[in-house]
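Known limitations

C-alpha coordinates in this collection are predictions and should be treated as such. Users comparing against experimental data should check residue numbering before alignment. To illustrate the layout, the record for 2-hydroxy-3-oxopropionate reductase is reproduced below. The input appears on top and the generated C-alpha coordinates appear beneath it.
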Amino acid sequence: MSNLPKIAWIGLGIMGSPMSENLIKAGYDVTGFTLEQDKLDRLAAAGGTAAPSIAEAVRDADVVITMVPASPHVEAISYGPEGILENARKGALLIDMSSITPQTSVDLAAAAKDKGIRVLDAPVSGGEAGAIEAVLSIMVGGEQADFDIAKPIFDALGRTIVLCGPHGSGQTVKAANQLIVAVNIQACAEAVVFLEKSGVDLAAALDVLNGGLAGSTVLTRKKDNFLNRDFKPGFRIDLHHKDMGIVTDAARNVGAALPVGAVVAQLVASLRTQGDGGLDHSALLRAVERLSGAQV
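Generated C-alpha coordinates:
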Protein backbone atom coordinates (compact mmCIF):
# COMPACT_ATOMS: atom_id res chain seq x y z
CA MET A 1 0.00 0.00 0.00
CA SER A 2 1.28 3.45 -0.90
CA ASN A 3 1.74 6.09 1.77
CA LEU A 4 1.13 8.80 -0.79
CA PRO A 5 -2.10 10.80 -0.45
CA LYS A 6 -5.11 9.67 -2.45
CA ILE A 7 -5.96 12.17 -5.15
CA ALA A 8 -9.25 13.06 -6.81
CA TRP A 9 -8.84 14.86 -10.13
CA ILE A 10 -11.77 16.86 -11.56
CA GLY A 11 -11.39 18.02 -15.17
CA LEU A 12 -9.54 15.89 -17.73
CA GLY A 13 -9.09 18.22 -20.67
CA ILE A 14 -6.05 19.19 -22.73
CA MET A 15 -4.12 19.99 -19.55
CA GLY A 16 -5.83 17.82 -16.96
CA SER A 17 -5.37 14.48 -18.70
CA PRO A 18 -1.57 14.55 -19.04
CA MET A 19 -1.17 16.13 -15.61
CA SER A 20 -3.22 13.44 -13.90
CA GLU A 21 -1.29 10.78 -15.81
CA ASN A 22 2.00 12.23 -14.55
CA LEU A 23 0.74 11.80 -10.98
CA ILE A 24 -0.13 8.17 -11.74
CA LYS A 25 3.39 7.66 -13.10
CA ALA A 26 4.73 9.16 -9.86
CA GLY A 27 2.89 6.51 -7.86
CA TYR A 28 -0.23 8.36 -6.77
CA ASP A 29 -3.65 6.73 -6.55
CA VAL A 30 -5.76 8.98 -8.80
CA THR A 31 -9.54 8.87 -9.12
CA GLY A 32 -10.92 11.17 -11.78
CA PHE A 33 -14.15 12.66 -13.00
CA THR A 34 -14.99 14.61 -16.13
CA LEU A 35 -18.00 14.87 -18.44
CA GLU A 36 -16.41 13.11 -21.44
CA GLN A 37 -16.40 9.30 -21.34
CA ASP A 38 -13.38 9.03 -23.63
CA LYS A 39 -11.33 11.08 -21.15
CA LEU A 40 -12.41 8.78 -18.31
CA ASP A 41 -11.42 5.78 -20.44
CA ARG A 42 -8.02 7.38 -21.04
CA LEU A 43 -7.51 7.86 -17.30
CA ALA A 44 -8.43 4.24 -16.61
CA ALA A 45 -6.06 3.04 -19.34
CA ALA A 46 -3.27 5.03 -17.68
CA GLY A 47 -3.87 3.27 -14.35
CA GLY A 48 -6.30 5.65 -12.71
CA THR A 49 -9.87 5.07 -11.55
CA ALA A 50 -12.86 6.63 -13.30
CA ALA A 51 -15.61 7.89 -10.99
CA PRO A 52 -19.28 8.31 -11.99
CA SER A 53 -19.65 11.66 -10.22
CA ILE A 54 -17.78 14.42 -8.42
CA ALA A 55 -19.16 13.19 -5.11
CA GLU A 56 -17.80 9.67 -5.69
CA ALA A 57 -14.45 10.96 -6.89
CA VAL A 58 -13.74 13.17 -3.86
CA ARG A 59 -15.31 11.18 -1.03
CA ASP A 60 -12.17 9.31 0.09
CA ALA A 61 -9.56 11.70 -1.31
CA ASP A 62 -6.86 13.34 0.76
CA VAL A 63 -6.24 15.87 -2.00
CA VAL A 64 -8.73 17.14 -4.59
CA ILE A 65 -7.29 18.80 -7.70
CA THR A 66 -9.45 20.72 -10.16
CA MET A 67 -8.52 21.82 -13.67
CA VAL A 68 -11.49 23.35 -15.50
CA PRO A 69 -11.82 26.25 -17.97
CA ALA A 70 -13.13 29.25 -16.00
CA SER A 71 -14.62 30.68 -12.79
CA PRO A 72 -18.22 29.51 -13.49
CA HIS A 73 -16.95 25.95 -13.94
CA VAL A 74 -15.00 26.08 -10.66
CA GLU A 75 -18.10 27.34 -8.88
CA ALA A 76 -20.28 24.66 -10.50
CA ILE A 77 -18.07 21.78 -9.36
CA SER A 78 -17.31 23.22 -5.93
CA TYR A 79 -20.70 24.30 -4.60
CA GLY A 80 -24.09 22.63 -4.26
CA PRO A 81 -25.16 19.23 -2.92
CA GLU A 82 -23.18 17.30 -5.55
CA GLY A 83 -20.12 19.55 -5.37
CA ILE A 84 -16.70 19.19 -3.83
CA LEU A 85 -17.31 21.14 -0.63
CA GLU A 86 -20.34 19.05 0.35
CA ASN A 87 -18.70 15.72 -0.35
CA ALA A 88 -14.98 15.98 0.37
CA ARG A 89 -13.93 14.87 3.81
CA LYS A 90 -13.04 17.37 6.52
CA GLY A 91 -9.32 18.09 6.47
CA ALA A 92 -8.92 17.46 2.73
CA LEU A 93 -6.79 19.79 0.65
CA LEU A 94 -8.42 21.31 -2.44
CA ILE A 95 -5.96 22.51 -5.08
CA ASP A 96 -7.57 24.48 -7.89
CA MET A 97 -5.23 24.59 -10.89
CA SER A 98 -7.72 26.33 -13.19
CA SER A 99 -7.11 29.88 -14.42
CA ILE A 100 -9.87 31.98 -12.86
CA THR A 101 -10.41 35.37 -11.27
CA PRO A 102 -8.49 36.04 -8.06
CA GLN A 103 -11.74 36.88 -6.28
CA THR A 104 -13.23 33.50 -7.15
CA SER A 105 -10.24 31.85 -5.47
CA VAL A 106 -10.56 34.05 -2.38
CA ASP A 107 -14.29 33.27 -2.10
CA LEU A 108 -13.71 29.53 -2.57
CA ALA A 109 -11.07 29.46 0.16
CA ALA A 110 -13.43 31.21 2.57
CA ALA A 111 -16.33 28.86 1.79
CA ALA A 112 -14.09 25.80 2.08
CA LYS A 113 -12.72 26.92 5.45
CA ASP A 114 -16.25 26.78 6.85
CA LYS A 115 -16.33 23.10 5.80
CA GLY A 116 -12.93 22.31 7.28
CA ILE A 117 -11.33 22.04 3.83
CA ARG A 118 -8.05 23.77 3.01
CA VAL A 119 -7.50 25.44 -0.38
CA LEU A 120 -4.65 26.46 -2.64
CA ASP A 121 -5.05 28.28 -5.93
CA ALA A 122 -2.33 26.93 -8.20
CA PRO A 123 -2.74 27.91 -11.87
CA VAL A 124 -0.05 26.82 -14.30
CA SER A 125 1.86 28.04 -17.33
CA GLY A 126 3.48 25.95 -20.02
CA GLY A 127 0.61 24.78 -22.16
CA GLU A 128 -0.10 21.26 -23.33
CA ALA A 129 3.58 20.52 -23.99
CA GLY A 130 4.53 21.63 -20.49
CA ALA A 131 1.80 19.46 -19.02
CA ILE A 132 2.92 16.39 -20.96
CA GLU A 133 6.58 16.94 -20.12
CA ALA A 134 5.85 17.81 -16.46
CA VAL A 135 7.78 21.09 -16.73
CA LEU A 136 4.97 23.51 -15.87
CA SER A 137 5.43 26.70 -13.91
CA ILE A 138 3.03 26.60 -10.97
CA MET A 139 2.10 29.84 -9.20
CA VAL A 140 0.44 29.23 -5.86
CA GLY A 141 -1.72 31.23 -3.47
CA GLY A 142 -2.55 30.10 0.06
CA GLU A 143 -0.98 29.10 3.36
CA GLN A 144 2.66 28.02 3.65
CA ALA A 145 1.75 24.84 5.57
CA ASP A 146 -0.64 23.72 2.82
CA PHE A 147 1.91 24.58 0.15
CA ASP A 148 4.49 22.43 1.93
CA ILE A 149 2.09 19.47 1.94
CA ALA A 150 1.28 19.95 -1.75
CA LYS A 151 4.86 20.51 -2.89
CA PRO A 152 5.65 16.82 -3.69
CA ILE A 153 2.53 16.72 -5.86
CA PHE A 154 3.56 19.89 -7.64
CA ASP A 155 7.03 18.44 -8.16
CA ALA A 156 5.47 15.64 -10.23
CA LEU A 157 3.74 18.20 -12.45
CA GLY A 158 6.14 21.07 -12.91
CA ARG A 159 9.60 22.52 -12.62
CA THR A 160 9.14 26.09 -11.31
CA ILE A 161 6.89 26.07 -8.26
CA VAL A 162 6.47 29.23 -6.17
CA LEU A 163 4.19 30.29 -3.33
CA CYS A 164 3.27 33.83 -4.40
CA GLY A 165 1.24 34.98 -1.39
CA PRO A 166 -2.19 34.51 0.21
CA HIS A 167 -5.31 33.11 -1.48
CA GLY A 168 -5.81 34.62 -4.93
CA SER A 169 -2.13 35.47 -5.41
CA GLY A 170 -1.52 32.54 -7.72
CA GLN A 171 -4.37 33.72 -9.95
CA THR A 172 -3.04 37.28 -9.97
CA VAL A 173 0.38 36.08 -11.11
CA LYS A 174 -1.26 33.84 -13.73
CA ALA A 175 -3.18 36.84 -15.07
CA ALA A 176 0.13 38.68 -15.47
CA ASN A 177 1.56 35.60 -17.18
CA GLN A 178 -1.27 35.56 -19.69
CA LEU A 179 -0.76 39.25 -20.42
CA ILE A 180 2.93 38.66 -21.17
CA VAL A 181 2.23 35.56 -23.29
CA ALA A 182 -0.46 37.27 -25.38
CA VAL A 183 1.69 40.33 -26.07
CA ASN A 184 4.65 38.08 -26.90
CA ILE A 185 2.64 35.97 -29.35
CA GLN A 186 1.30 39.11 -30.98
CA ALA A 187 4.83 40.50 -31.41
CA CYS A 188 6.01 37.19 -32.88
CA ALA A 189 3.04 37.09 -35.25
CA GLU A 190 3.75 40.61 -36.50
CA ALA A 191 7.42 39.70 -37.01
CA VAL A 192 6.46 36.60 -39.00
CA VAL A 193 4.27 38.56 -41.39
CA PHE A 194 6.91 41.28 -41.76
CA LEU A 195 9.63 38.71 -42.49
CA GLU A 196 7.55 36.78 -45.00
CA LYS A 197 6.47 39.90 -46.88
CA SER A 198 10.14 40.93 -47.01
CA GLY A 199 11.11 37.66 -48.71
CA VAL A 200 13.33 36.41 -45.89
CA ASP A 201 13.85 32.69 -45.14
CA LEU A 202 11.39 32.51 -42.26
CA ALA A 203 12.76 29.37 -40.59
CA ALA A 204 16.29 30.78 -40.61
CA ALA A 205 15.11 34.14 -39.33
CA LEU A 206 13.17 32.65 -36.42
CA ASP A 207 16.14 30.48 -35.47
CA VAL A 208 18.53 33.41 -35.23
CA LEU A 209 15.99 35.65 -33.50
CA ASN A 210 15.33 32.98 -30.90
CA GLY A 211 19.05 32.80 -30.14
CA GLY A 212 19.24 36.48 -29.18
CA LEU A 213 17.45 38.95 -26.95
CA ALA A 214 14.24 38.48 -28.96
CA GLY A 215 14.18 34.81 -28.00
CA SER A 216 11.54 33.50 -25.63
CA THR A 217 9.79 30.35 -24.47
CA VAL A 218 6.81 31.52 -26.52
CA LEU A 219 8.88 31.60 -29.70
CA THR A 220 10.47 28.24 -28.90
CA ARG A 221 7.09 26.59 -28.28
CA LYS A 222 5.17 28.30 -31.09
CA LYS A 223 7.78 28.55 -33.86
CA ASP A 224 6.53 25.44 -35.64
CA ASN A 225 2.94 26.66 -35.35
CA PHE A 226 3.93 29.80 -37.22
CA LEU A 227 6.04 28.00 -39.82
CA ASN A 228 3.46 25.30 -40.57
CA ARG A 229 0.31 27.33 -39.91
CA ASP A 230 -0.58 24.54 -37.48
CA PHE A 231 -3.09 25.92 -35.01
CA LYS A 232 -4.23 22.69 -33.39
CA PRO A 233 -5.18 23.88 -29.90
CA GLY A 234 -2.65 23.57 -27.13
CA PHE A 235 -4.24 26.61 -25.52
CA ARG A 236 -7.37 27.89 -27.23
CA ILE A 237 -8.06 31.49 -28.23
CA ASP A 238 -11.35 31.16 -26.33
CA LEU A 239 -9.46 30.56 -23.08
CA HIS A 240 -6.93 33.32 -23.70
CA HIS A 241 -9.84 35.68 -24.37
CA LYS A 242 -11.20 34.75 -20.94
CA ASP A 243 -7.79 35.34 -19.35
CA MET A 244 -7.35 38.73 -21.00
CA GLY A 245 -10.69 39.70 -19.51
CA ILE A 246 -9.43 38.64 -16.09
CA VAL A 247 -6.21 40.65 -16.29
CA THR A 248 -7.79 43.80 -17.73
CA ASP A 249 -10.51 43.75 -15.08
CA ALA A 250 -8.05 43.09 -12.25
CA ALA A 251 -5.73 45.83 -13.52
CA ARG A 252 -8.62 48.29 -13.61
CA ASN A 253 -9.46 47.43 -10.01
CA VAL A 254 -5.95 48.22 -8.78
CA GLY A 255 -5.37 51.23 -11.03
CA ALA A 256 -2.76 49.69 -13.35
CA ALA A 257 -2.68 50.84 -16.98
CA LEU A 258 -2.31 48.14 -19.65
CA PRO A 259 -2.20 50.09 -22.93
CA VAL A 260 -0.55 47.37 -25.04
CA GLY A 261 -2.44 44.62 -23.25
CA ALA A 262 -5.75 46.33 -24.03
CA VAL A 263 -4.96 46.36 -27.74
CA VAL A 264 -3.96 42.70 -27.75
CA ALA A 265 -7.09 41.82 -25.78
CA GLN A 266 -9.14 43.39 -28.59
CA LEU A 267 -7.21 41.44 -31.22
CA VAL A 268 -7.84 38.19 -29.34
CA ALA A 269 -11.53 39.10 -29.11
CA SER A 270 -11.65 39.83 -32.84
CA LEU A 271 -10.30 36.36 -33.62
CA ARG A 272 -13.21 34.83 -31.73
CA THR A 273 -15.75 36.84 -33.67
CA GLN A 274 -14.15 35.58 -36.89
CA GLY A 275 -14.64 31.97 -35.83
CA ASP A 276 -11.10 31.22 -34.64
CA GLY A 277 -11.88 30.77 -30.94
CA GLY A 278 -11.18 27.04 -31.01
CA LEU A 279 -7.69 27.45 -32.47
CA ASP A 280 -4.41 27.70 -30.59
CA HIS A 281 -3.50 31.19 -29.40
CA SER A 282 -0.64 31.22 -31.92
CA ALA A 283 -3.48 31.83 -34.41
CA LEU A 284 -3.02 35.51 -33.56
CA LEU A 285 -0.91 35.22 -36.70
CA ARG A 286 -4.15 34.91 -38.66
CA ALA A 287 -5.33 38.27 -37.34
CA VAL A 288 -2.11 39.98 -38.43
CA GLU A 289 -2.34 38.33 -41.84
CA ARG A 290 -5.90 39.60 -42.29
CA LEU A 291 -4.84 43.12 -41.32
CA SER A 292 -2.00 42.82 -43.83
CA GLY A 293 -4.32 41.94 -46.70
CA ALA A 294 -4.09 38.14 -46.77
CA GLN A 295 -7.11 35.92 -47.30
CA VAL A 296 -7.10 33.38 -44.44
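For this record: Residues 169-197 form the longest helix (29 residues). The chain has two domains: 7-165, 173-292. Please report discrepancies through the issue tracker.
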